[in-house]
């Protein structure tokens, strides 16, 4: 990132290692930012991820790892940014979540965690309004990046598979997500809080990428069948 700063700019970049699942590291991150830069105007909760698995195959450890990273990690960053600076001075927050309106079969653990963030943002938009804090979410569709693709390389080219499900017929770019994030952080979004913006090329309005096998396991509700069952002679004990 430092290499992207144009010559003559006063912008600075500093990396502070932090596992968002560790409370002491998150406290250190927020207090270091305030002591080093004297302020903390914006927070973008972007760290997160998951692995693909049907729920029936998920271990509790796997479920907990994903919930801990995505939901608990975001909670810690929010609370510590509030305590370190934003409670007194206000600020703007954007959480990166997932498309969740139709559930996310295949990554249900992450969708449940991100739905928790979506709802947490609504509560905080009200709880923290009088502190001058706005909080919003961005829900990306399929966004190609080298690092995200690397994470999924063992299960095939998920980013190519996503294209037919996206009305725009392409993956999004990281710049397109950044554009929505910077808008929400900017004064142009001064009257927007507790909201989620989808950056998905229309995916959420279209199809769910999950094939349901043909089956007859959900028969219709039917009076006659129930009466027939009730009229059957009961087995003697
Ligand atoms: C028709 C198909 C259309 C498909 C369309 C798909 C479109 C794609 C759209 C993309 C949407 C989302 C994209 C992104 O989010 S990009 C971000 C990419 N980066 C990541 O996702 C990072 C992922 N990794 C992590 O965040 C962490 O590693 C994770 C939270 C997943 C795990 O945390 P931790 O490292 O602490 O956990 P462990 O490695 O110790 O594992 C704990 C247990 O979790 C289970 N587990 C972990 N990894 C896997 C895996 N790959 N597969 C199955 N299970 C896994 C396991 O139970 C671990 O315990 P054990 O090691 O004891 O077995
Ligand atoms: N790409 C996509 O299509 C989509 C992405 N998203 C979400 O967007 C966000 C960015 O993903 P993307 O850039 O695509 O993928 P990346 O894998 O490149 O980014 C995920 C980032 O999360 C960080 N991270 C994971 N766990 C922790 C942790 N415990 N503490 C601190 N940081 C952590 C990783 O850090 P490190 O590099 O150190 O491991 C990495 O920088 C994620 O939340 C992702 O789930 C949502 C929908 C779609």
From TrEMBL:
GO terms for cellular component: peroxisome. The keyword Thylakoid does not apply. GO terms for biological process: fatty acid biosynthetic process; phytol metabolic process. Its main location: other. Its EC number is 1.3.1.38. It holds the Pfam family adh_short_C2. Pathway: Lipid metabolism. It is an enzyme of class 1 (oxidoreductase). It is found in: Peroxisome. InterPro entries: NAD(P)-bd_dom_sf, Peroxisomal_t2-enoyl-CoA_red, SDR_fam. It comes from the Eukaryota. The keyword Glycosyltransferase does not apply. GO terms for molecular function: trans-2-enoyl-CoA reductase (NADPH) activity. It catalyses: (2E)-hexenoyl-CoA + NADPH + H(+) = hexanoyl-CoA + NADP(+); (2E)-decenoyl-CoA + NADPH + H(+) = decanoyl-CoA + NADP(+); a (2E)-enoyl-CoA + NADPH + H(+) = a 2,3-saturated acyl-CoA + NADP(+); (2E)-tetradecenoyl-CoA + NADPH + H(+) = tetradecanoyl-CoA + NADP(+). Keywords: Fatty acid biosynthesis, Fatty acid metabolism, Lipid biosynthesis, Lipid metabolism, NADP, Oxidoreductase, Peroxisome, Phosphoprotein. Gene3D superfamilies: NAD(P)-binding Rossmann-like Domain. Interacts with PEX5, probably required to target it into peroxisomes. Participates in chain elongation of fatty acids. Catalyzes the reduction of trans-2-enoyl-CoAs of varying chain lengths from 6:1 to 16:1, having maximum activity with 10:1 CoA. Has no 2,4-dienoyl-CoA reductase activity. This is Peroxisomal trans-2-enoyl-CoA reductase. It comes from Branchiostoma lanceolatum. The lineage of its organism: Eukaryota, Metazoa, Chordata, Cephalochordata, Leptocardii.
């Amino acid at each position: 990132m430092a290499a992207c700063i144009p010559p003559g700019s006063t912008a600075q970049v500093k990396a502070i290692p932090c596992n968002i699942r560790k409370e002491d590291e998150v406290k250190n991150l927020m207090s270091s930012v305030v002591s080093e830069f004297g302020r903390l105007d914006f927070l973008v909760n972007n760290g997160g991820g998951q692995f693909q698995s049907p729920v029936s195959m998920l271990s509790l450890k796997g479920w907990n790892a994903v919930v801990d990273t995505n939901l608990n990690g975001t909670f810690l960053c929010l609370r510590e940014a509030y305590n370190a600076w934003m409670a007194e001075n206000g600020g703007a927050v954007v959480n990166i979540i997932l498309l969740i309106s139709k559930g996310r079969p295949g990554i249900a653990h992450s969708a449940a965690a991100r739905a928790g963030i979506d709802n947490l943002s609504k509560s905080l938009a009200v709880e923290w309004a009088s502190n001058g804090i706005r909080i919003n979410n961005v829900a990306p569709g399929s966004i190609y990046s080298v690092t995200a693709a690397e994470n999924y390389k063992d299960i095939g080219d998920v980013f190519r598979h996503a294209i037919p499900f996206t009305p725009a017929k392409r993956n999004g770019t990281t710049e397109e997500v950044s554009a929505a994030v910077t808008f929400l952080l900017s004064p142009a979004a001064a009257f927007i809080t507790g909201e989620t913006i989808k950056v998905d090329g229309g995916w959420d309005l279209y199809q769910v990428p999950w094939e349901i096998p043909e089956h007859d396991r959900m028969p219709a509700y039917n009076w006659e069948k129930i009466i027939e069952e009730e009229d059957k002679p009961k087995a003697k004990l």
